[in-house]
């Protein structure tokens, strides 16, 4: 995937997640959703290998309410990200998602 398409995917994810946070009527999640997309999108997008995230990505993960954001993931977002990669990134960064956490229609094994 070229850098331009990665940037496009990142911006698309930001817009989709931001929109779902605002439209849901349930308030916003603590943390930096834009930062998550900027620093971590490359590690969770489809396609590509599962790789360990950067320190910058982990810093954002550690200060974000991932289960809250996870609860607002839409079907559109699930088409663009690999939830197995999301589980890997959060675990690698020291904030593993609990077994049974629901992210859109995905349930953490």
Task: Describe the model.
The protein has 109 residues and is mostly helical. It has one domain (3-107). It has 6 helices and 2 strands; from the N terminus they run H-H-H-H-H-H-E-E. The chain has helices spanning 3-23, 33-44, 55-62, 66-70, 75-80, 83-92, and strands spanning 102-103, 106-107. A two-stranded antiparallel sheet has the order 1-2. Helix 2 (33-44) crosses helix 3. The longest helix is centred in the first third of the chain and has 21 residues, at 3-23. InterPro entries: Bifun_inhib/LTP/seed_sf (IPR036312), Bifunc_inhib/LTP/seed_store (IPR016140), NsLTP-like (IPR044741). Keywords: Signal. It holds the Pfam family LTP_2.
Give the termini distance in whole angstroms: 28 Å
Query: What would the principal axes of the Cα set say about the shape?
Result: globular
Percent helix, as a range, is 55-70%
Strand content: under 5%
- Counting helices, strands and paired strands, the structural category is mainly alpha
The domain tally reads 1
Strand elements, count = 2
Radius of gyration: 13 Å
Determine the number of helices (DSSP H or I, runs of at least 4 residues).
6
On the 0 to 100 scale, the average pLDDT is 79
- Order of strands, main sheet, comes to 1-2
Q: Quick one: biggest sheet?
A: 2 strands, antiparallel
Task: Encode the helix/strand succession as letters.
Answer: HHHHHHEE
């Amino acid at each position: 995937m070229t850098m331009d398409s990665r940037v496009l995917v990142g911006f698309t994810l930001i817009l989709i997640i931001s929109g779902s946070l605002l439209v849901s009527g349930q308030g916003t999640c603590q943390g930096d959703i834009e930062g998550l997309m900027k620093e971590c999108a490359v590690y969770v997008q489809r396609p590509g290998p599962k790789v360990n995230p950067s320190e910058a990505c982990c810093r954002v993960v550690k200060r974000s309410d991932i289960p809250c954001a996870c609860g607002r993931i839409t079907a559109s977002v699930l088409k663009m990200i690999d939830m197995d990669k999301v589980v890997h990134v959060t675990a690698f960064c020291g904030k593993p998602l609990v077994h049974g956490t629901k992210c859109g229609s995905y349930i953490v094994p």
